[in-house]
TrEMBL record:
<keyword id="KW-0597">Phosphoprotein</keyword>
<dbReference type="GO" id="GO:0031177">
    <property type="term" value="F:phosphopantetheine binding"/>
</dbReference>
<keyword id="KW-0596">Phosphopantetheine</keyword>
<dbReference type="InterPro" id="IPR009081">
    <property type="entry name" value="PP-bd_ACP"/>
</dbReference>
<feature type="domain" description="Carrier">
    <location>
        <begin position="2"/>
        <end position="80"/>
    </location>
</feature>
<dbReference type="GO" id="GO:0017000">
    <property type="term" value="P:antibiotic biosynthetic process"/>
</dbReference>
<dbReference type="InterPro" id="IPR020806">
    <property type="entry name" value="PKS_PP-bd"/>
</dbReference>
<protein>
    <submittedName>
        <fullName>Phosphopantetheine-binding protein</fullName>
    </submittedName>
</protein>
<dbReference type="Pfam" id="PF00550">
    <property type="entry name" value="PP-binding"/>
</dbReference>
<dbReference type="InterPro" id="IPR036736">
    <property type="entry name" value="ACP-like_sf"/>
</dbReference>
């Protein structure tokens, strides 16, 4: 499945950088970062890098209750408009 937006491309790229052993095919939008094997440090690194690359000023705490990657992409897309 091809990415639908620049935000999704960025999310996939950052996850690949922080979790280099994770096969790209395993990164599906119905999973959350924990499902992908990201521990708490990995999750903070991923969110920090995403907010930096996308120019978002959202605090890391605003990402705590995001259920899956689809919601993460939506949250980031709204924050970078």
């Amino acid at each position: 499945m091809s990415p639908r937006s620049q935000t999704e491309l960025t999310v996939r790229a950052v996850i690949g950088e922080i979790l280099p052993d994770l096969p790209a095919a395993d990164v599906t939008l119905d999973k959350n970062l924990r499902d992908l094997g990201a521990d708490s440090v990995d999750r903070v690194e991923i969110i920090s890098l995403l907010t930096h690359r996308l120019g978002s000023r959202e605090p890391i705490s605003s990402f705590a209750d995001i259920p899956d990657l689809a919601a993460l992409i939506d949250h980031l897309s709204r924050g970078s408009q």
